[in-house]
Amino acid sequence: METTTTKPREIFLNGNQAAEYLGVTRRTIGNMVSDGRLRAYRIRGGRDLRIRRSDLDNVLIPVDAAAID
């Protein structure tokens, strides 16, 4: 019996969806892309950006409970 493993399909969000996902504005997403904190992709021949959901998860960092005022 032969088994095959399929790679999970990567989920991409547009700028508005990414902003909603993180709870920030679309402008904040644009700033994060511009300054290199977030990687974005463009569909060949298109204008709109797409951002991997996993990249959005990676910009979130855990906060030590003692650091919260």
UniProtKB/TrEMBL annotation:
Transmembrane segments: none annotated. InterPro entries: DNA-bd_dom_put_sf (IPR009061), HTH_17 (IPR041657), SinI_DNA-bd (IPR010093). Residues 13-57 form the Helix-turn-helix domain. One of its GO terms (molecular function) is DNA binding. It holds the Pfam family HTH_17. It comes from the Bacteria. NCBIfam families: excise. This is DNA binding, excisionase family domain protein. It comes from Mycobacterium intracellulare 1956.
